[in-house]
Amino acid sequence: MPRKVNHVSAEDHRIVTDAVAAAERHTDGEIVTIIAARSSDYDDVALVWASVGAFLAMSLVALFPDFYRGLYDALRGGWGHEPTTNEWLGTIIAFGVVKWIGIWLILLWRPLRLALTPRSIKAARARARAIDLFKVGTEAKTAGRTGVVLYVSLAEHRADIVADEAIASKVAPAIWGDAMAALIERIRAGQPGEGMAEAVRQVGAVLATHFPKSDGNPNELCDRLIEI
């Protein structure tokens, strides 16, 4: 049985769902709200850091061979013979492999892996995840191509808005800036539900201007806050 996801409280759910329903009363636009724990596991970042660490470790051995040969000899109790070129090369490679495994094991701890991920990569992953979710659940799912996804990724501290074709043709991405600012400000203050609700209200106002409510327009997409 899948584990239930709870990033926000039941009250936050109510606040956001009510905000979506209220906003859609004035527009043919459909607002989908999604909150995620993270946008990626960043396993590839751990692999890169492990590889960089192993390379640097082996480079140090190459730069200071006398020191490491002395250390090698000391570890053998001073009774070892002078290693041949092949033996020394094998030792260096083994040292690099051990270093790689050690770093990779440390980076299995996700908070550290996330902390070592550049901000630009986290922003790109959050954007890509928002687009993927939009394509799966919102794109072309409304008669007028008026769906919009409001996406929040908690681990990356990122938020994004992805709009369907009809909206994107009339609303420049910069227009969503105020909604994003309000959302991020309240999430930082520990009010994710209020932040998303305020962003929904501002998105709804923009949609109402360009796509006012028409007679008989159904509610085509879910109003409730989605947690993943």
Automatic annotation (TrEMBL):
Residue stretches making up the TPM domain: 123-205
Keyword Transcription regulation: no
Pfam families found in the cross-reference section: TPM_phosphatase
Biological source species: Sphingopyxis alaskensis (strain DSM 13593 / LMG 18877 / RB2256) (Sphingomonas alaskensis)
Membrane-spanning ranges: 46-68, 88-109
Signal peptide: none
Keywords of this entry: Membrane, Transmembrane, Transmembrane helix
Name used for this protein in its record: TPM domain-containing protein
